[in-house]
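Continuing from the previous page...

OK, I double-checked the sequence for V-type ATP synthase beta chain against my notes and this is the correct one:
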Amino acid sequence: MSIEYIGATSFNGALMALESIPGASSEEIVQIHMDDGGMRTGKILQLTDDATIVQVFEGTNGMSTSNIRTRFTGKPLEIPLSSELLGRTLDGLGRPIDGLGEIYPQMKRDVNGEPINPVSRMYPRNYIQTGISSIDAMMTLIRGQKLPVFSGNGLPHDALAVQIVKQAKLTGEDAENFVIVFCAMGVKNDVAEFFRRSFEESGVLEKVVMFMNLANDPIVERIVTPRCALTAAEYLAFEMNMHVLVILTDMTSYCEALREVSSSQQEIPSRKGFPGYMYSDLASIYERAGMLKDRKGSITQIPILTMPNDDITHPIPDLTGYITEGQIVLNRDLYQKGIYPPISVLPSLSRLMKDGIGEGYTRADHPAVSNQLFAAYANVQNVEALASVIGEDELSTTDVLYKEFGKEFEEKFVSQGKSENRDIIQTLDLGWRLLSILPKEELSRMDPAMVEKYYVERPKEDIVDKLEKDGDVHEQ
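Thanks. Re-ran it with the corrected sequence; updated structure tokens here:
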């Protein structure tokens, strides 16, 4: 039986306070009817002996303590779920905004959900190919993993998200059961249109479910948006047996909304003004990714966040890094060199990639190629530091070859076109061609038999002569 309450006690931002309501429960959805015929939706945020605090999704502008009637529905926020979700665009509360009519549900489910029980989890295996060499080779995305992208304001994380959506795929018999849930939070209208148009023009929209919370949409709605998206993903994965890639952008907008709501509740702030429970709140989102032992489907997450002032120690990337299984870091210096995607390889990693690559998954040489590329590029930084001290003239031939490797690695391996889709074999072959710039004895992280099989002989003298002609080095 629904309960209706007339009037309110007070308002504070998007929060509405009522007297203590017997029988009300936390997370319960309320319908707020106004005298002018309008209706707004809210959620019970807090219950005390003296008051019931309600978050109003559409805000409290125009509401007074006397012109409203609040009806308690007796149930939490639910969204309609069916196979018709694919190809649809929804708002932050899961309501259609694409003009294609309502969704006729096969079921409705509470958006709050629960993290997957560790006992029920199946260890992530196999990989998702993104078509981006630096990701596929060196920080491979594994099915069921949580792999965030750490970006910054002005960096091309939106273009990277679109490229992943257009190119990501599975291999083998599961290729046809791969879909994407794309969740945008706090984005501007032009960015939202860029996402929609890109997916539509590339023909991938039919396998994508889009949740859009715009910058001018209510702050409170932004907190619900990723939960709606993950509820849809759980339905597609565990009821429809699909493999779902969930992209969440921008988690910084989500966390700032969380801080604003926390501040309006006058809660004691923690670091940078964010609430002390932000870690557990983010975990309640990230831990909904994974695979279940008794289900065929899977949920893989790529949360994208912009680091304020490019500070990787900021609470948002810091807490995200603790919860997730690696990170992909975008670098402003690479971006200013004209390299896209500007992925900084050295601070990036995928903690689960060792169990989803190699023979039976990608190619037998994949782990060795990844390790050797990483080691060689790390040594490039040492060579450049040495050159800044002793000068280019004093570098040895091997050091010169490392500098050439570093240049080609950034320009030919990390950098690729926004529509360039490289499969894993092309990526590994390209990796070998770059490693062949170095002498064989420098490939210390590889089995000699593997080096003999894949190494491409390139005259080292010609490379050094070319560099001298170009002015990169001088004769010693």
